[in-house]
Amino acid sequence: MKEPGIPVNEALRLATLKSLNVLDTAAEERFDRVTRMARRMFGVPIALVSLVDEDRQWFKSVQGVDVCETPRSISFCGHAILGDDIFLIRNALTDERFADNPLVTGDPHIRFYAGCPLRSGDGAKVGTLCIIDTTPREFDEDDAIALRDLASMVESELTAFQTATTDELTQISNRRGFMQLAQYALSYCVRNRQPASLAFIDLDRFKPINDNFGHAEGDLALAAFAEVMCASFRSSDLFARLGGDEFVVLLTGAGKADAQRALEKFGSQLESYNNKAQRGYRLEFSCGVVQFDPADPQDLNELLAAGDAQMYALKAARKALH
């Protein structure tokens, strides 16, 4: 078996994939209708919208199998994103790259595969629309045109999804995107008995930046704050701008002490930005950190409210000292 290679732009590709805010979200009719159509048009038992993450391929839409992800190391789609057009395997048993692949020798017993790369707005190939059969088959140019057309429909939906869940100014998740992703992340923590911590963050003295330097500079400050967040927190952490000068980070697999260390690192990187940027003001923050207990799970809104209350209590205590 040949494992799929790694694209030369892998770091950018993964960043783009994460920015779509679609990984680990619920099934949606707008994607499912495309895979149902593909399954019907080509007469195949399996059709997928597959997104190739760092170590897995995750299915945003799945018709014909009961799993939601498989390892990237055995994926056909990992190979498909290395090319610019449809990746085609007419008979996997006669292809030395796949003949002994677990997905060929075992469930779902893949014989035929055709996957069209899905591109994001910046051209990065984030996954595929693919069709799979359990018997070998042919695939002609008319089939290729039809699969490309269906793939373009999926690309349009991915773009629309990103627009709806991304903050336009900072390009990180907005409140809607965070609420969707965080709910699934917390459900995962409950299933796997992992801790999590939520940090409710307020950008300090944001109003004076707007008042003294203008709203354009205020926008730049918010964008810079988000950029340092992206560089500081782990790729597995979920962070968002809730609105105005309020931000949030959900750190999965992290207790409160772990979250505090991550926030100290963020503060250190923000200090480095301030020293380098010299904008006439400093980006600083206040935050409240609450821990999520998977054995006694809190509602996400309750976590946000608790983090918000703790952040304002700390802010009030600090003001009282001055």
Summary tags:
10 strands; 45% helix; 10 helices; 322 residues; Beta-Lactamase; alpha+beta; 4-stranded antiparallel β-sheet; Alpha-Beta Plaits
SSE topology sketch:
Blueprint: H1 10-19, H2 29-42, E1 46-52, E2 56-63, E3 69-71, H3 77-80, E4 87-89, H4 102-105, E5 112-119, E6 125-133, H5 141-165, H6 175-192, E7 196-203, H7 206-213, H8 215-232, E8 238-243, E9 246-252, H9 256-277, E10 285-292, H10 300-321
Antiparallel strand pairs: 1-2, 1-6, 2-3, 4-5, 5-6, 7-9, 7-10, 8-9
Helix pairs in contact: 2-5, 7-8, 8-9
Compose a concise summary of this entry:
This protein is α+β, with helices and mostly antiparallel strands and 322 residues long.
Would you give an account of this structure?
It is a single chain. The protein is α+β, with helices and mostly antiparallel strands and 322 residues long. It folds into two domains: 155 residues, 2-Layer Sandwich (Beta-Lactamase), CATH 3.30.450; 147 residues, Reverse transcriptase/Diguanylate cyclase domain (Alpha-Beta Plaits), CATH 3.30.70.270. It has ten helices and ten strands. It has a six-stranded antiparallel β-sheet with strand order 3-2-1-6-5-4. The chain has a four-stranded antiparallel β-sheet with strand order 8-9-7-10, sandwiched between helices. The longest helix has 25 residues. The mean pLDDT is 93.
